[in-house]
Design goal:
CATH class: Alpha Beta
Largest sheet: 8 strands, mixed
Number of helices: 8
CATH superfamily: Alpha/Beta hydrolase fold, catalytic domain
Distance between the termini: 74 Å
Helix content: 40-55%
Structural class: alpha/beta
CATH topology: Rossmann fold
Number of domains: 1
Order of helices and strands: HEEEHEHHEHEHEHEH
Strand order of the largest sheet: 1-2-4-3-5-6-7-8
Amino acid sequence: MKFRISIAFLTIFLAFQSIHAQDSESILIGQKSKIHSQILNEDRTILISLPDSYSDTTSKTYPILILLDGYAHFKTAAGIVHFMSYERLRNRIIPEMIIVAIENIDRERDFTVTKLKTKRENTMGGGKKFLAFIEKELIPYIDKNYKTEPNRILVGHSLGGQLAINAYMNQKSLFNAFIAIDPSIWWDEKTTAEKVDSMKSEAFKKRLYIATANQGETGIERNKKRHELLVSMFDKKAEGKQQVKLDYYDNENHRSVPLIAIYEGLKFLYKE
């Protein structure tokens, strides 16, 4: 008798599980693809998140947000962009956009534009090549395969933030706007200063948002002062006509600041 009751209970349980499984549906925030780069001579993995309305219309086009350190920040950025552009909540803070996050292979190589001398052998200094991959291979690939418009944002954190600033200083960059999250200005400050000095007026028409984190008692002043000095150099060179904003987050550290920086950065870029 107990055996029959157990069998009956198991049958009901499995039937319920079967019904439950049939009712379930996956919620996807993106897809993973690979693109071969001839410039870098390697395959690169990208994560792509499309807007909610992407399949609703054939005529609508979308800005592109290129995200460095893609695996680390993809879900965060996708959630923020979705919230800020969610039509059902009438959150029209920013337009819907396509997020393209690039996974890392060698971030020290890809995010630095100069090679520093170190005791150990290093791969530094490949930043220009990496930016060339983004602008000459990745963006054309996205433009060809997705419904894009020529409005592009580059977002980077730490060394990635420093690369974003280097891209901003290049007047020929394909990007219209940049978010540099606690950028590593300490990396070859001399070269950065020289680049600011040689910037052309065209570069200052683009928008740049810089977020500074509290790096603790030993690093707070140096980190904050470096960022403030850089912005003052931009201001002096552009004669006050640049579109740069610097925010300091006293309650955020280097690792926690990306969340609020992406949100506030996008608000600044689309403040009008």
